[in-house]
């Protein structure tokens, strides 16, 4: 439906325009309602000066007849434009463009490209973007769905779809059935005793960290964090206005001594230190708990991939050793199922839980109920446990193929962090530069990442991070061969 673009701007007698002085196109197949389409086009004409101040629009019957629509379409469009001030309506004069609504002659309509003078664009978020293009991507932080039981997955979502649709908001702490299922799962998989009241359902670990930071920490707090460590978590702390101090890491995990400075909070990854892959030894775990008690501090235990161990006996989670309620245990289903679900949880002491729930309520109100219903179905029927067992066997084969190609590189390079998790660390000997190797491998279609980006103080260790969860055993073997070939060609020749 198109109006003539050649109508005179003003009626000869000063009355309303016989028709609009610009083309109007209405599409019944479009997603927007007809009155919304008409209102948008009239508004654009006013802003662009096509309808100057004082211009009186055609009557609703007249315009409706010209456009081939019902009078209600035009009346609703006019009403919306009067409501936002684009048009004015008065008895005896009809509908017209008020003074100040039209742009000055020749001026372009406004574009949403500006920002306040005080706004400072942030630096890019320190996260790895999904890889593009072909090649072998040793991406850290992904999970495989090759072992997913598609039938069980569909049954879970069918179960969620059958649940009654509520007109109420969800519980911001999480539905009680899902919280109970998560508590039981943590008890089975990690030996950590918990009940439904101890669980807060979150949209992943980063949201959990944001909730803790906003709900529990005083402004401008000092925080200790492993160095090298999870750079996205560090950025969350910095963006919240806290000061982050490095906590050194060695072969036994985070180094905690009597000289470790006081802080409000410490963030650690004890089960599989990110990114070095070492495990926090039991003496260090006890020392960290003692440090927190001495300095009245909280501990975040991020157990981001603790389900995946390969022959190494599990160490007790920090939270299971905690008697004072200082450990906040972060769990996630991103590795156990898929990051696409954006689901995780926090285990907290009763004293801290109300503040976390309040923060979640004010942030977004809680997890969508259908997602919670599907997850509860998968957890309560043991489908997550079975999936983890299948996936652990899959990853063990991929890990074995990769380590077989890289285990004979010493002393030029050696592997670390291979006992658990979904990535390993290839440490480089003297004379090798991780950034140079990263570029050389990318030229061959093999994509790895240097460890340096995860260090924030002191010299960066020379090492490559190799995430293998998104690869098959054959792909891992081919990638390992390419890495070994480039490394041997680049390594300095031994002296005579």
Automatic annotation (TrEMBL):
The keyword Protein biosynthesis is assigned to this record: no
SMART domains: HTH_GNTR (SM00345)
GO molecular function list: transaminase activity
Annotated spans, Disordered: 98-123
CDD domains on file: AAT_like, WHTH_GntR
Top-level taxon of the source organism: Bacteria
Entry keywords, A to Z: Aminotransferase, DNA-binding, Pyridoxal phosphate, Transcription, Transcription regulation, Transferase
Keyword flag Magnesium: no
Pfam families: Aminotran_1_2, GntR
Family annotation (InterPro entries): Aminotransferase_I/II_large, HTH_trans_reg/aminotransferase, PyrdxlP-dep_Trfase, PyrdxlP-dep_Trfase_major, Tscrpt_reg_HTH_GntR, WH-like_DNA-bd_sf, WH_DNA-bd_sf
Domain HTH gntR-type, residue spans: 32-100
Family to which this protein belongs: In the C-terminal section; belongs to the class-I pyridoxal-phosphate-dependent aminotransferase family.
Name of the protein: PLP-dependent aminotransferase family protein
